[in-house]
Write a structure and sequence with these properties.
heterodimer; A: alpha/beta; Rossmann fold; 4-stranded parallel beta sheet; 53% helix; B: alpha/beta; 5-stranded mixed beta sheet; 9 helices; 10 strands; 40% helix; 22% strand; globular
């Protein structure tokens, strides 16, 4: 059975990351997953990512218990299920972090920072915790849904990054050091470059890493970018996958079709979906989601401007036109036969099937497209049997 | 040579045997129940009696038939079955017990596009049964009743439970049985209206609902200004399609 050996090291790294959050004397900053992590690290903050907790609540299916708790206090179950699962977990004082990493709860924040480049929900989610912990909350609010990111947009966001500095200095007790920021940004860029190379190994057939595996191996690029640890890990992982490419060892022995997954993972059904595709020798080789942590634009020579560009130019913050262009390019590069659009009921911002995209993509590329309704955490929105029929029909379409 | 198609649906199991000339030699319909041993008994008997050369299973329970040579989704079987009757590009609407499937099917039976509900059973056979029960209508009599109604009143709610509440209000307002029946059908048509479809193509209505509620065809024709065909034995089309796939796969082996 195909196995990625680096997984052992991954477990070790993630355990250490959470252990540091628990034991480190450093101040703690909470940050959105595509927020200004590098800037925060340059001040010496340990950085914690609530979305990572949301994903864990989803993957462990604990979210099914915690979402209703948040609903009771006015956060209904049809808004972001990361938000509702996380707030419910806080109220319930119950977190899978205890079982998996020995933390009774997420670490208490000294500063909370968001970037609404992904959605407005993070602002209200983080503000809730600001109130709960009597903790300052700061945010970056970039222009959204852009065709192109223009200089005026970069100037706007760059000045918002700079405006965070005094608050970071006050809370961390450290003076801003641009060389530390440059260093962190360089580490982050190098790690994201390696992450990109990791994902690109699956341009090969048989592909050595599936979308489902990548959702696990992306842990360090989300929570540890800007550190040597992330860099070392992706060097290790890439080396292993490169060897597998040379040896023609893939997660499937035979690929009958190659699939692109658009949208959020369905965290509580990753194994089910992975097995379903494998049964049909269908390789899910690429995704928008895992590509979201590739930041080609980081440039240590212009740390503020390039951070502004990199974090504003991300897929989720772009117009339908720009998204279509990106998808078309990935379909070509990864030799994709079919695209699955996951329409996540509680994640409007990361569901790209609602403005005619599947139809346009099919018309312009000839690949089959399918919308699967579900959710990132709330499995009440996912029908296993109906989705199976839809996916199997798509695979029949591709093979016929 | 004989070929067996088995459609194990959420409510009913449909069996059908054809010869290599696509002639139907046998068909049967019975309730699908997890604890129903009848299916396995009948299948074993038929396979032996008809000396089945190849078989294909489909439907929600398609993976239950261990002896099947091929397993296909019901969308592909619907396409294969209707194409055998009408080898043209077409739209197929398949309304079953718990789902609606709508597909664009090629002249060569390829599924070009498809849609199916996956979050809610509004507009399906179960919806009709539930709402009709609340209205105390005999489902077998609904088409006859609806045919004599001039009403254009429709149930607004897609939610089956709320539709039941809504129809209670109609009953309180002394709505006739004829208008109740037609209102339920219009609600189904409204559900279908939201599904992307190519209305320039001939439309075929299949599935259990087409069999028991033929007046739905008139509602769809009137509402969408299209011509709708209900093939003979619409509930058996997917089993027929499965048998055709078995036959074609065997011949092309």
């Amino acid at each position: 059975m195909y196995k990625i050996n680096a997984s052992k090291e991954l477990k070790h790294i993630m355990k250490n990351y959470f252990s540091d959050l628990k034991n480190s004397p450093k101040p703690i900053a909470w940050c959105t997953s595509v927020g200004p992590a590098e800037l925060l690290r340059s001040f010496g903050f340990e950085v914690y990512f609530p979305e990572n907790h949301g994903a864990l609540l989803g993957a462990t299916r604990k979210a099914m218990d915690t979402i209703p708790v948040a609903s009771k206090i006015g956060y209904p179950s049809d808004i972001c299920s990361y938000l509702t699962a996380d707030i419910g977990s806080h109220i319930q004082k119950s977190s899978p972090l205890l079982k998996h990493y020995g933390l009774e709860s997420p670490p208490r924040p000294d500063l909370i920072v968001y970037n609404t480049n992904q959605c407005r929900e993070v602002q209200d989610w983080f503000s809730y915790f600001g109130d709960q912990f009597n903790c300052p909350v700061s945010g970056i609010v970039p222009p959204r849904h852009l065709d192109d990111v223009k200089q005026a947009d970069i100037d706007n966001v760059s000045s918002q990054f700079k405006a965070l500095v005094p608050e970071c200095e006050r809370i961390s007790g450290n003076t801003f050091d641009i060389d530390k920021f440059r260093h962190t940004l360089r580490l982050s860029k190098e790690a994201t470059y390696l992450w990109k190379k990791v994902l690109e190994t699956s341009k090969n057939s048989p592909a050595p890493i599936s979308f489902f595996d990548a959702t696990i191996h992306m842990g360090p690029i989300v929570v540890l970018r800007g550190t040597e640890t992330a860099l070392d890990y992706y060097n290790l992982l890439l080396d292993e996958l490169d060897v597998n490419v040379v040896n023609k060892t893939g997660f499937l022995k035979k690929e009958s079709s190659r699939i692109y997954w658009e949208g959020m993972p369905i965290w509580g059904r990753l194994r089910f979906l992975s097995e379903l595709f494998a049964q049909h020798n269908s390789a899910v080789v690429a995704s928008t989601y895992c590509n979201s942590w590739i930041f080609d634009d980081f440039d240590e020579r212009k740390p503020f401007e390039s951070s502004a560009l990199a974090y504003t130019t991300i897929f989720i913050n772009r117009s339908e036109k720009a998204k279509l262009k990106t998808l078309k390019s990935l379909i070509k590069d990864f030799r994709i036969d079919g695209v699955i659009f996951h329409e996540a009921k509680t994640c409007f911002n990361n569901s790209n099937s609602r403005f005619g995209m599947p139809r346009k993509l099919k018309d312009e590329t000839g690949v089959e497209t399918l919308i699967v309704e579900g959710d990132l955490c709330d499995l009440r929105f996912f029908s296993e049997e109906q989705s199976t029929i839809k996916i199997e029909t798509l695979l029949e379409q591709i093979s016929s | 040579m004989h070929f067996l198609g088995v459609d194990i649906g959420s409510l009913y199991t449909k069996l059908l045997i054809i010869n290599s000339g696509f002639e139907v030699l046998y068909s049967d319909i019975f309730k699908t129940l997890a604890r129903n041993n009848k299916r396995d008994d009948i299948l074993s008997k038929l396979i032996k009696e008809y000396k089945i050369d190849y078989s294909c299973s489909t439907g929600y329970g398609r993976k239950l038939m261990k002896s099947a040579n091929i397993v296909k989704t019901e969308l592909y079987c619907a396409s294969a079955g209707v194409t055998q009757l009408a080898p043209i590009e077409k739209t197929i609407i398949d309304i079953g017990g718990e789902d609606i499937k709508l597909l664009k099917s090629g002249a060569n039976a390829k599924v070009i596009d498809f849609y199916m509900n996956s979050k809610c059973a509004a507009g399906t056979g179960a919806f009709i049964t539930e709402v009709a029960e609340r209205a105390e209508l005999d489902v077998a009599d609904m088409s006859r009743l609806a045919a004599s109604s001039k009403s254009v009143k429709e149930l607004n709610s897609f939610c089956t439970v709320f539709a039941k509440t809504e129809i209670m209000k109609w009953i309180f307002d002394d709505t006739t049985d004829e208008d109740l029946a037609k209102g339920i059908y219009i609600s189904i048509a409204n559900r279908i209206q939201k599904i992307p479809a190519d209305n320039s193509l001939p439309v075929f209505l299949i599935g259990g609902v087409a069999r028991y509620h033929p007046f739905l065809k008139n509602i769809l024709e009137e509402k969408f200004n299209i011509k709708v065909t209900i093939p003979e034995n619409p509930q058996l089309i997917n089993a027929f399609g499965a048998a055709c796939i078995a036959r074609n796969s065997f011949v092309n082996k």
